[in-house]
Amino acid sequence: MLSRTADHLFWMARYIERAENTARMLDVTLTTSLLPQSPRQAELGWRAMLGISELQPSYDAVHPTMSAPLVLDFMVRDPDNSSSIYSCLQAARENARAVRGALTTDVWETHNYTWLQLQTQLRDGLLERDPKQFFEWVKFRSHLSRGVTIGTMLQDEAFYFIRLGTFLERADNTARILDVKFHELGDGQSQRDGQSQRDDQSQRDGQSQRNGPEQPGSPHYLDYYYWAAVLRSVSAFEIYRRVYRDVITPLRVAELLILRPDMPRSLAASVNEVCGTLERVKNDRSGETARRAGLLGAELRFGRIEDLLARGMHAFLTGFLERVNDIGQGISQDFLVPLETPQ
Where are the domains of the chain? Predict the structure, then answer.
């Protein structure tokens, strides 16, 4: 396959996945901003989301104040923000258009209609009327894109470069969603929380959370609803209840979304898919990239959540994001058109 074709397919998949995950991050931040808390705490939540996305300077350059409507506008419809949902879906469509011959008609029409429908949704004010419905629409279109790809495309190199882009982006974004909270807690707090949970949280939360969250004003009230929102943002709330019953703790949320390979959006599952796909498309230059991906996959496969907490969850997630970025650069050098600036 020509490297330019592979490049377009890879980034088409990354951009559609990025749009979905931006919708997920905005959804969880909006949900938690509505919890009983001070305006300052709500503002810090939005700042944390922008900071983890590395977009705080870009936001500050165009908006002098921090508010939910301004952040939503910046992250959804701003064409000058390359990570906005608008920009991502436009870029996904343009990459698909550039390689229409490598895609089935169904895949191309799905991307094209998503882009056209997005403009209608924004023009009709769906984001302002019901932001959660808008985010659900973005997620649905991303799900449809993946389903049509799996259901209609030949499983050749084109198919696998799409898969590679999807799961590399998913690993990055799941880590960012988790890091929003652990960044707020800080390494010391996350370690104390982990120790507390190992000592007595199962008993305490098992008593309180089986009957619902604690009352407003209690120390664990906001955490209960925050972590429930995080789970819902990655479609993991029902999976969590099936695996751990209904006791919601940060320790178990982190374990589910980082280490469990049977959780579809976990870091372990995403990295495993990247490793398997690299094996299918390998060439004589990709050995080092495959080795780095395999090493990361092995650490997740054999890692323990207690070890990650001892290291510091924010530190682990930051390091994970750096390694995923390194793998992405390796893929670009090994298979794709070299990029002068990061996308």
Answer: 3-335
